[in-house]
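A reminder from the course coordinator: this example appears on the midterm review sheet, so study it carefully.

Given structure:
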């Protein structure tokens, strides 16, 4: 199935503030964490939704297994 491609600007609006949706990007894919109690209002510890967080995972106490059960919304447009 073809995934919809979103720009960084479109992703940035889904920060739980400008728009109600809460999306994060990791390794080129965009994941939906709108209903995650760990991403309320678009924040997760000191990390913010609406961004490409690929480089920030190294700060996490967990690996990327946390993405396995999340819905993929689309693909991040690489500039
Ligand atoms: C100080 C840094 C961080 C802490 C203390 C932290 C802590 C946690 C904890 C305790 C969980 C629950 C894990 C579980 O269900 O086993 C979690 C889930 C998650 N974390 Fe982090 N995390 C951090 C950084 C990050 C970063 C940088 C990302 C993104 C690249 C991230 C993405 C996620 C995601 C997607 C989930 C799953 C949410 C869900 O299923 O509802 N975390 N985190």
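Designed residues:
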């Amino acid at each position: 199935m073809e995934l919809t491609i979103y720009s960084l600007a479109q992703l940035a609006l889904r920060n739980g503030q400008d728009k109600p949706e809460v999306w994060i990007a990791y390794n080129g894919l965009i994941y939906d964490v709108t209903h995650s109690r760990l991403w309320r209002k678009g924040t997760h510890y000191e990390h913010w939704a609406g961004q490409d967080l690929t480089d920030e995972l190294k700060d996490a106490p967990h690996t990327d297994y946390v993405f396995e059960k999340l819905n993929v919304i689309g693909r991040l447009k690489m500039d």
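The longest helix spans residues 8-13. The mean pLDDT is 95.
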